[in-house]
Amino acid sequence: MRIYKTRIDDTLNPSPLLLKNRDTTPHHSDTTPPLTNNFGSGSPLQHQPVIEMIRGGKSFVSSPPAFSNDAKKLLVCTGNTVSVFSTDTGLQVADLEGHTALVTSVIVVPSSTPANALLCYCWTTSLDGTIRYWDFSVSELIKTVDIQLPVYSMVIPSFLDRQSENSETQPDTYAYISVEDTKTEQNKQRNLRGQIRKCNLSKSRLVRGAILSETKKPEKITISSNGKYFGVHEKRKIRVWEVPTKDGKNISHRNIKLTHTKNLSCIAFHPTDRIVAAGDATGRILVWRGFGDKTFADKDLENEKVSKDEDDKPGVRGEGDADSCTTWHWHSSEVKVLYFSSDGAYLFSGGKEGVLVGWQLDTGKKKFLPRIGTPLLSFTSSPDSSLSSISCADNRIHILKMPRMEILKSISGIKLPTPVPDMFRGSCNDFVFDRTAGLVAVRTENYCIQFYSLFDDREISEVQVCERNHQPSDDVTMILNLVALSFDGSVMCTVETRMAEEGIGGFVTLKFWDRRSQNNDYNLSTIIYEPHRDAGVSAVAFHPTRCMAASASYGGDFKVWVSNHDIQPNDKLIQRTRWACHAVGSYQKKPMTAAAFSNDGSVLAVAAETVVTLWDPEKNVLVAVIGSTREPIGNLSFIGDSGFLASASHGANPQLSVWDMSKLSVSWSYKLHVEAIASSDKDSHFAVLVLLPEPSNAEVATSHNADGAILLFNAGEPVAVASWFVTKAKGGGLAFIQSRSLDDNMDENDNPGSGLLAYVNGDHEYAIFNPHGLETQERKVRHTDSVPSLEVTGQSGYASIYGKLPEFKLNAIEASAETVTPSERPWETIFSGPSHSLPPLTKLCSAFLESLLEKRSGDGLVK
Amino acid sequence: MFDLYKCSSTSIEWNPSPIVALATSLDESQVAAAREDGSLEIWLVSPGAVGWHCQLTIQGDPNLRVSSLVWCGSPAGRLFSSSIDGSVLEWDLFHLTHKVVVDPIGVSIWQMAAQPSSRKQLNPKPDLASIENGHTIANGDVTSESEIEADSLELHEEPIIENASIALACDDGCVRIYNTSSSDGFTYHKSLPRVGGRVLSVTWSTDAKRIYSGSSDGFIRCWDVKLSHEVYRITVGLGGLGSMSQLCVWSILALRCGTLVSADSSGSVQFWDSSHGTLLQAHSCHKGDVNALAASPSHTRVFSAGSDGQVILYKLSVDKSSSIMMKKWVYIGYVRAHTHDVRALTVAVPISREDLLPEEKVKRARSKEKPDFSYNKWAHVGIPMLISAGDDTKLFAYSANEFTRFAPHDICPAPQRPPIQLVCRTADRLTYLLLVQAPHWLDLLTVEVNRDGGVSTTDTVARVKNRGLRKIICSSISPSGRFFAYSSHVKPCLFELKKNGTGKSGWSISKRKLPSSIPFAHSMLFSSDSSRLMISGHDRMIYVVDVGNMELTHRFTPCRKECDEELPPTQPPITKMFTSLDGQWLAAVNCLGDIYIFNLETQRQHWFISRLDGASVTAGGFTPKHSNVLIISTSSNQVYVFDMEAKKLGEWSMHNTFVLPRRYQDFPGEVIGLTFPPSTNSSIVVVYSARAMCLIDFGMPIDGDDDQDNINSHDSSTLKLKRKSKETKNISRKNFEFCLFQEPVLFVGHLSKGSVLVLEKPWMQVVKAFDAQPVHRHIYGT
């Protein structure tokens, strides 16, 4: 996601969309051209678009992660950066920045001896055409190899070959990379864009002429863990190359092909034997044993092989050079994950079912890790093989204790948008913001609400709204439509629709949830079945101060709900809130499409298709009806204290209108396709997220790859104060959120109270910035604030080898972990406790030193 | 060309019986299948284009439940079956009878295994192949497949008479050993010490020195045959202790490499080192009991099948990448063809017949080169194939070498098809009568032909039940519809059908007494004028009875030479008979395919036709156009036309038999009948199987030559294209036109010159009537 701040009259000067809108807007009462931007016009920094900004919400699962050599860190490709997570705590400790496009793979340089297990070097590849070499312990870029072709995948065989370490002169490091050749014209004609090439990393150049294969699109390279073979799958065949034992310049690469009748989706190599496994699109797993007996065998052995009968290759198709091919079938749909355990006894597989299956290779016995609840994407094992990780499609990485397949920790990113059936597209919101706490509540696929901290870029909690198992079937039986949060975040309201099965049993449920004190657990307080008979709920709005909510329905009415606390006399601790219907209103039986409370809560605005009805929520009296738009209004928002109401309507004639509440008439309007409206609490600013119409703005869109814009307005004036171009605006959202009291350095220089503007795009990547700030200075999320720095010592090798330390010491560590602020000196507590229960000094030393290192890097980040 | 009247009648009962045991004959050319109702079928193993043919059916005792089949003894092969009631039967394939060789011993016999021939080591001929495991495997040969082909011509040269021992796995925990000798003996030899549990499976080691027995308490015991003591014991799994359910070892297989394979009720197939009794590999791929095991002739592949309907292949994999040669049995894949439990497996190798005429051989060889169906791609002479059968009453053949690559071949699309005859009762205004022979009764049905194109219906007129529920072997109805007859294995019976009044149930049946001297019959036939009844008795003579006065008019003795006519009968019993319209000729066919022609007027045998290219006769008939023209369809999918007067092949056959179109060679399913239009000037015959029918017009030329041009084209896509264009051509051309059926067809018959009745029965209806439940398959997410 990119955000471009521009002065509107610079880039949008011709501004066809806005000019046209003004002409075609019938209700427009203002004749001033909207593009005269007085904001920042005199600023000298207008050509340096910098705003202090927090970014986050990247996908953790775009590429497989990698473990560090001591398995304490996990390197995750997150967009243009590589984030380093601690496997002990599941929290981010560092990140590697430098790539300018998506990072596609990360390879940790393995340590040859246990002594240098602390080596922290890695290679990364990216679509920006570079391969970079990092020291990830200090987040430092060491070397950059410029390939000038987007690299999709890379393997480095010599890292895995243990023998080559013994040789005195260090040979050149060769890598095999999968690139997309966008330059060669003839390749475009042949429609072969993907290439597998060889690259000399030591000399930072491609090996000339070493194009191993050409494919239609770049494929992922998989390597065997002994570094002898690597292969790719392409459509219905796999190709396996043998890595030359002495890697040089002019080495021919022998390869074999194995074919299948279905499209293959992933491959894996056995660590010791000549076995390759592949998964196909129908869920079958094929295991070829003894592949390449003829091709890869040494010359002197060949005569012996010939004597064996030729057609004794059960299961192997065509001329495939393999001894036999076993087929296993458990998965019901495409196999996405295949991985052999490091001893070669097990094969792990996973797919859309969200079940990790461990196959015992000899007997075919299966064991399962079920209820992951989401499709699996990749599997990585750590060098010590007791830890491994699986990446799931819901942007979550689970760290597994391996022989038992037990989830130790989960690293959760923001959940991805869930696909919504067409019939519910209008009546679903993807996420809502908790403006005070700086959280976003995301509707997830498995009927949960994920609370995600925008400032910390991590998951806070997850609330299961309805109990449903993950099923990989396509027919949706239930859908979570709406989420709403009260202003202080203490009450949540959800709307879910259960589909009718064969015409029976479909209904809508409205649920209210209470948050209990400090922890972020929401408890179900009230369930209302069919709140508006069989009609769907279009919007839920909370009263800003009182425990009151309004729900509008397509059935033509809205209801006002109030909660009454009843404290049970015998047990004072149990406090129950019940929500009950306070009032019902309707206007001309029109479907109610949006609802909003004014900031003081005195007025409830409900959109009845094209008009806005204003109600007194207490007395349930219709106060006024204002205006009409061409299309039904989908969005209503009171703008601070200013007495203006903003409405947005979609459809063929989209419209953004601002209504003057004092005059009960339209103040100004534009013909804009508004995706979201956010208004600040206090002052009269509001921001809208606008989808740019594609054809009229083609050159702008292509130049910035942007398809949307955020426009900041002052309510009374139809001229945008500022604007930013954004990408993936479809399905995005906006909110003003209160900045944290801690990091007051962000908004010290401008008017307080208006807060920061948070933008979440259609892929749930987000950015927080000060809309009134002049400078954009990209700032990282301060993960180090939240990392209890002593965690590392608590999980040092001692506990895993000799069992748990005495109880009281752990307590001490935990207690200190909670209280310790970053400025404290954690290493002092390591040595606390009786000397006989302390681990040996040699063990503690490394942890001690590490904690020191950790500290300093963290300080470096915070600065 | 015809009006097809389809009739899928529910009033025709078709209840095929599950197959409980399979055994391959010693020359691996025949497979014996025992069904639950006590009947035995002999199937000819056929390669390539030729459909499988059920050569023989012997109706056994429905009360005896066969537990295993063993084919052993002299090269001709003696077929024994053990029963749950503890008796052992020998099946006489020549006389089509069975006899009890061991009276019930009081305990159930679960399995039999014949001793592998000890001379095999000296003289590794495939014909000495032993049966290693009662109902599973019959291939102990040490030769490779190529040697089988080379040796196949010597198959019958060495009549080796040897006393083979048979081990019986008995319910009381004993393994009893019986000796067989060629002189009809089946004598008790000794018992191995009695142990706990029931012995469920037994097999011999390949050197015949040891016996392995598996029991219901989860043990495999290894016995020394000479000393009758236990060598060692393998615990397959703990079973039968306390509250745990029993762990039954259902099948054991001893391989030449010294590996012992066991299949048990926990669903696992385990491989053991037989010298030490240690576990090599364990696979638990089955989701239910594993019932049967079989090994390919090379003993490098093992197949297992069980109650989950799967057949699974394991292969001996030699790991060549490491320095030590590691041998390992690996799971390869499964094929699920059966809808119900699989009960039995066996491996057979199709062999070419030695009595193929030389010039025929050349032409057949040419036709074998070009595969059309997938079955043809793998089923070749000398290539082993696996046959499985079970509760869904079907038999499937798989390629043993390319098991997972090709779909299995459905050998019998219509198992235990009820024989049906159609007659037109002209006495009362053209009533079509169907005679359906069920296992224990006869059904008479009238056919209501729906001329408007709808489905024709049938209506039951009468049901004649056999007293004592004996099995009906054969039946016949006279062309006039007035008489019908059947024979159980006690005596034949004749009935007269009368229509009195006009009411719906206005039919009456009266029994007519046949001469008491007539034995029970294998085949019956009325002459075309319904005046005489021909009965081929089990004493291998053909009796001709005048229906009018119930007198025996003549007795034919089929013989190879005409001068032998007065000698006692020596030929195999007649299983099929055809008679000409003018009543002059009677063609009698025995089960091996020899044809005897009798002249009913002169009451002498007219001609003997030796079996045609070694194949059995599947169907035949005299044409209505020329009464002395006999048309025969053989199990190798050839059609022959004989001229009775001239005692030679007919003119058409001389020219055309060896250039029959390729697609006729690939007739889907086994040919089960011929039907002629009831007209004296038509030269058309309709040949049908359960899956297709084909029209042959002898008056038209056949263009078999257009097949030759693409013999050498190996490009499959062009081949397919050509075939498609050819098929479209064929529709316009009338001759050898195929009509495929969706559902299994029981009977096709001409109603009149231009209309054909097709009786079909949806297989799903048949499956619903089974006792056994189909294999339950859990669908993910339900």
UniProtKB/TrEMBL annotation, chain A:
WD repeats by residue range: 257-288, 328-369
The entry's keywords: Nucleus, Repeat, Ribosome biogenesis, rRNA processing, WD repeat
UniProt-annotated location(s): Nucleus, Nucleolus
Pfam families in the cross-refs: Beta-prop_WDR75_1st, Beta-prop_WDR75_2nd
Compositional bias segments (type: Basic and acidic residues): 20-30, 302-320
PROSITE patterns found in the cross-reference section: WD_REPEATS_2 (PS50082)
Residue stretches making up the WD repeat-containing protein 75 second beta-propeller domain: 445-696
InterPro entries in the record: Beta-prop_WDR75_2nd (IPR057644), WD40/YVTN_repeat-like_dom_sf (IPR015943), WD40_repeat_dom_sf (IPR036322), WD40_rpt (IPR001680)
Ranges in coiled-coil conformation: none
Region named Disordered: 14-42, 302-323
Protein's UniProt keywords contain Ribosomal protein: no
Protein name per its UniProtKB record: Putative transducin/WD40 repeat-like superfamily protein
Species, as recorded: Helianthus annuus (Common sunflower)
Upper classification of the organism: Eukaryota, Viridiplantae, Streptophyta, Embryophyta, Tracheophyta
Automatic annotation (TrEMBL), chain B:
InterPro entries hit by this protein: PCN, Quinoprotein_ADH-like_sf, WD40/YVTN_repeat-like_dom_sf, WD40_repeat_dom_sf, WD40_rpt
SUPFAM superfamilies, per database record: Quinoprotein alcohol dehydrogenase-like, WD40 repeat-like
Protein's GO biological process: meristem growth; meristem maintenance
Keywords from the UniProt entry: WD repeat
Superkingdom as given in the UniProt entry: Eukaryota
Cross-referenced PROSITE patterns: WD_REPEATS_2, WD_REPEATS_REGION
Ranges of the WD repeats in the UniProt entry: 199-233, 283-324
Gene3D superfamilies: YVTN repeat-like/Quinoprotein amine dehydrogenase
Record PANTHER family: WD REPEAT-CONTAINING PROTEIN PCN
Descriptive protein name: Putative transducin family protein / WD-40 repeat family protein
Origin organism lineage: Eukaryota, Viridiplantae, Streptophyta, Embryophyta, Tracheophyta
